[in-house]
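Protocol step 4 of 6: structure prediction from sequence.
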Amino acid sequence: MTYWIKSNNVKDFRLDDWMRNHNEVPWRRTNRFEVGDIVFMYTSSPVQRLTYVFRVEKLFITPPKELSLYWGVKRKPGKVVQHDLLKLVQRISYDCKLSLYDLRQHGVNGNLQGGTRISGKLLDYIQNEIG
């Protein structure tokens, strides 16, 4: 099992809106997640913090058509791409110290874009914060 931080830009996909009505999300496959991997979702500006914990459930091709209602202006339907099904494990409380500033204090360098494998002290810190 691998642990990841994956970023979400609210201008590209309104994840919070989607998660109000769902306990899983089809995520466009841009990393080599494997079934069982854990993904800590980082929501970019204006939130700038870890917001969800997901477990990778499966790989599939066609996401539900309803997903397109949550895409931002940059995302256009058309090309068939693979998706990972991310199952919600936990919504991360805003009481947890998991802002970009906090993550940088514990090993994150630069901005969180794309997907990053994590381990060691950073992983220990995140797991301790979310309990």
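Step 5 (inspection) to follow. The longest helix spans residues 120-130.
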